[in-house]
Amino acid sequence: MAGAGIPFHATVMPSLRDPDSRFSLVTRAALMPIASVDALVRILRFHPDVCCTTGGLASLPAALAARAARVPVYIWEGNAVPGRVNRLLAGWSQRIGATFEASLRVLPRRRTFVDGNPIRRSLLTWTRESGRAKLGIPAEGPVIFVTGGSQGSAAINHAVSGAVTRLLRRATVIHHTGTAHLAQVSTKRETLPPDLRERYHVYGFLHEEMGAALAAADLVVGRASSSSIAEPLAFGVPLILVPFAASAEAHQTANAQDIAERGAALVIRESQLDADRLVAQVTGLLDDPARLARMAKAARAAGRPDAATAIAGELRKLGGCA
Fold it and tell me: What is d(CA 281, CA 267) in angstroms, rounded to the nearest whole number?
């Protein structure tokens, strides 16, 4: 925040890493009054027009202080299953921005709008042509983009390792491994025949090139976090989703199911993921271009590339700044 020239103040309230720990709950409860008073003092000094929160225990003192100071509260909920703090604050907030339609089942309908997940504008500048040119991928032919998120996924990488030869016979593969897994996957790549190796593009981390990879892809295989789903959908790319099995309240499974019900994704449970199942799902779609096209159409319909603008508009309206 300091690098962007935006003033920042942290309260003493830490996040709740272990909801089942009684010690953590007791310590957070003890800190809540201190953090709330601190937040209230800061709000009275700053005179904000609106308070925006994405949830989590660390946000609770600021949201409570904002309501005490009669500052309207906007909640942004990124998952299909709202977090506990957001469910608590939903009754006190003036407006709620959701990412998934499924959130409407548990959030106040009159004050909840599906605004989507904000996406970096720089990602959206890429086109299919410019993305493929940037990554050295032929303009024609199917491209599969596999990603486990910024840290990578051992489960997805393991499945790809067993499937990669069969996948490369059908398509170019962009594999975002995560930095910790890069060396192992790169070693695997070197064992491939030269004609397959040149079609296997391996990256430990992608920043601006993430937009190039998404724009170049015909199909994305990845996790089911809010951003992992929102970014491909913004490009109209269908997905094969592997929800993280240990996600809190199984929210990734709920996220994936929401998009699958809208026709833009297939879902593989992490416990059922292996090379054979991955190949079967990918080749099944590549062999059925009509179905893949229907999924791409559904992805474009579900995608919200203008989510950041929509959320900013809601905040300005709520704060009387529009």
Answer: 9
pLDDT at 21 (0 to 100): 60
The counts of H helices and E strands in the chain are 13, 10
State mean pLDDT over 146-152. 88
- Which two three-digit tokens encode residue 314? 């809601």
Q: Which two tokens stand for residue 201?
A: 């593009």
Domain membership of residue 197 as a residue range: 121-302
Q: How does residue 79 score in pLDDT terms, banded at 50, 70 and 90?
A: very high
Instruction: Give this prediction's pTM.
Output: 0.91
Is residue 132 within 8 A of residue 138, CB to CB? The reply is yes
What is the number of structural domains in the chain? 2
Q: How confident is the model over 146-172, as a mean pLDDT? A: 94
- Tell whether the torsion through CA atoms of 112, 100, 261 and 257 is positive or negative: negative
Distance (Å, rounded) from C-alpha 34 to C-alpha 54? 21
Query: Which residues 6+ apart lie within 8 Å of 155 measured at CB?
Result: 148, 242, 270, 273
Same domain, 105 and 131: no
